[in-house]
Amino acid sequence: MWKKRKIRLTKIVGFIIFNVLFTVLLAPFITFWGPFEATKTIAVGSVLTSRHPQVVKAFLSDQEISDIVNNYNNSNLNSNTPVQSAVTDTSAGITIETITGKTFKGKVMLIKDPKRIKVAVTKDLGVKGERVSDFVKDTGAVAGINGGGFCDPNGAGNGGFPDGLTVHKGEIVQNNIGSNSTDIVALDKEGKLIVGQIMADEVKKKNIQEAVFFWPPLIQDGKRCEFKDSEWGIGPRTAIGQKEDGTIILVVIDGRQPLWSLGAKMSDLYNLFRDYGAVNAANLDGGSSSELFYNGKVLNKLWDWAGERYLPTAFVVMPKDSK
């Protein structure tokens, strides 16, 4: 009797293992070749911006990827992005607006004085990152968004290693590019936002005070930069821009949440910054990193079920009367 039960249990376990493996093997085929368009769009957007974009290209042609991305044209080139509501905190010198597009929802924060924007760097640099809420608290800031890209040695995912160049208070605090050039999102001594390529020895020459690494630039000196939606897909986004009068524009868009917000393309970000009158703008780290923290709480809907991600850098907004 015991022997028969053991055989039956073995068969049941074997059946379960087989079905799990079968489902795992079929998952990418169902995702990329199946009829579920929202799932396919989220998958394309997520994988294209990961370290393994070749996974998408193994199942879909460049034309198919382009078609999927372009089917979600969130922004009309001839109209402004709708603003659902706006909250102005006069005492803090901040305006926060809720925006919506065809497939995205997000927040825009406007800060009149650009010199209030600083880069916060994890206090455990090279060991572990911090959450945006930690950066805000540690620096005495009033708000913050996630910052630049980072390396992930050994797949630890602890956010302790910023990529490219990182600058704080005019000093390079991290450089893993040597004398090569890299993409940068920076603020100089006058509070001007600088986007594009730079080398480490230009930091002092250009009076750069705060900077992180990420790309692509979206607008440079009032002109649209070169970028391809098909290389970035659709997903959660964080970006920064600046108006002619110096006003800083912080954008955080939710994504990968079919019942709430699928996300945005790079062209959506470009259209959004253009609508806000930006003369310079650039994309920052997105995906599960995308976050806007203000007044003691996260204002957007995080994609990661685990909550705030641990990151090496953030852009924080210092108090109005800080020096």
TrEMBL record:
Which residue range or ranges hold the Phosphodiester glycosidase domain?
140-318
Q: Which UniProt keywords apply?
A: Membrane, Transmembrane, Transmembrane helix
TM annotation in the entry: 12-33
Pfam families given in the database record: NAGPA
Name by which UniProt lists this protein = Phosphodiester glycosidase domain-containing protein
Q: Which organism is it from?
A: Desulfosporosinus acididurans
Which superkingdom heads the taxonomic lineage of this protein's source? Bacteria
Q: What is the lineage of its organism?
A: Bacteria, Bacillati, Bacillota, Clostridia, Eubacteriales
Which InterPro entries does the entry link to?
NAGPA
